[in-house]
Amino acid sequence: MKELLRIRAFVLVWAGQFASGLGGMFATFLEGWLVYELTGSKLAMGALHTAYLVPLLTVQLLVGPFLDRWDLRKVMIASEWIRAVAYLFPAVMLTWGWLEPWHLFVSAVFTGITEPLFRPATMAYVPAIVPKEKLIKANSLLEGTMSFALLIGPPAAGLLLVWWDPQYILYLLVSLMGTAGLVLWFLPCREGERATVQPVSWFRQFREGAAFFKTAPVLLGTGLLILLGNMSFSATNPMFLPYVTDVLNGSSFQVGLLFSTYSLGILAGSMFMGWIPEPKRKKNYILGANLIMGSCLGLLSVAYWYPLALLLAVVSGFFGIWFNILNSTLYQRMVPEQLRGRVFALRLLMAQGGMPIGAMFGGVIAESWGVMPLFAIAGSMVVTVTIIAWFLPVFAKLNQEWEAPNEQAVS
Fold first, then answer.
1. Average confidence score pLDDT of the chain
2. CA-to-CA distance for 310 and 246, rounded, in angstroms?
3. In sequence order, what are the residues at sequence separation of 6 or more whose Cβ sits closer than 8 angstroms to the Cβ of residue 350?
4. DSSP string across 21-78
């Protein structure tokens, strides 16, 4: 880890991601809470998540293929500062006593417009500043930092709701997003081919990124697993609030604590992955972790005891992060530098393609049948598909060496 902390650009990405993650977690918790307070509707909570996801996917589809030709530093900065403005709007409305549900939906739409660029830009930027043999540790540190932000964010937001009026928390969000953009401002610009290659059409950029998946079908396979996992998460995540408050008769602090316990598991899993040697049989780690994560989600359907829900959340987070870290490293190593922006953008698009469907169906199922059947359905889907994947030949390639064709030296 000490070697990573000597890389100034990595430290700046690390700090910026922490501020961004903390602000994003505050926003997710607070906006969901406000919508539920204003409407009392589980369907409205699912619709809020959909209002965020639809523009996210649209922007990802239209803009993602051009990432390799843009200054990734400016993309990350713009994403954070536009999100700051998006949170400022409901803060002002709430201050004046004019807040209505549609104001929160507008904020979610603008957040969805900018958020999809930050993650792929970061993932494409990191391999250019970190030696390839340090990527797993770098990803572990970044994921661990995000997990720490997720860990402290929800209970802090829950406690602040007890002590502060919600508009003050929204203003805090604006400050966190602004700070993240300011930190990223000091990153060095990596021009690469962006300064020398003539502009080409969106279709050609998209086709070049998509064509790479034909040469590495294991990337497509793991991407589809992410799609299903994110769809299940998108269906269930907004329902943790009514699950705790209505089913378990908990408080806002207990809602935040449940989110944080999941993040505590992610933090512990990130530290574990950064500490152990790189695993040789990566298939067991990747698919096994996904299987355990889906099982924990399904078991929530019978968890009527709050401590059991906390235990399932921490176990799910611990193993879920193994999948994310190793999958990100798989892409970073196998994708050539000149294609990383496009491929990571398409990976994110593929992974998030089912999230609006999950959010809407999650709201409908929870409204009609309750949140417990929703947990059972979502968990069963993840477990079933992961078991099928275990016996497919393409996933055996997870145990082979991860090397990019025509690999370039890392600067």
1. 79
2. 16
3. 223, 224, 226, 227
4. HHHHHHHHHHHHHHHHHHH--HHHHHHHHHHHHHHHHHHHHHHGGGGGGS-HHHHHHH
CA distance 329 to 313: 24
In a domain, 194, yes or no: no
Is residue 292 in a domain?
yes
| DSSP H or E stretch at residue 2 | helix 2-5
**369: DSSP letter:** T
CATH code assigned at 392:
1.20.1250.20
Q: How many domains does the chain have?
A: 1
Q: What share of the chain is helix, strand, coil (3-state, %, to 5)?
A: 85, 0, 15
Confidence of residue 299 (pLDDT cuts 50, 70, 90): very high
260 has a pLDDT exceeding 70: yes
Q: Token pair for residue 137?
A: 């540790």
Contact between 111 and 86 under an 8 Å Cβ cutoff? The reply is: yes
Whole-number Å distance between alpha carbons of 239 and 359: 10
Q: What's the domain range around 326?
A: 2-188+201-399
- Dihedral sign from CA coordinates of 386, 392, 398, 403: negative
354 and 366 Cβ atoms separated by less than 8 Å: no
- Answer whether residue 195 is part of any domain: no
Number of H helices, E strands in the chain: 16, 0
Nearest to 371 by CA among 250, 244, 263, 251: 244
Q: What is the pLDDT of residues 120-147, one digit of tens each?
A: 788 778 878 888 777 777 877 787 777 6
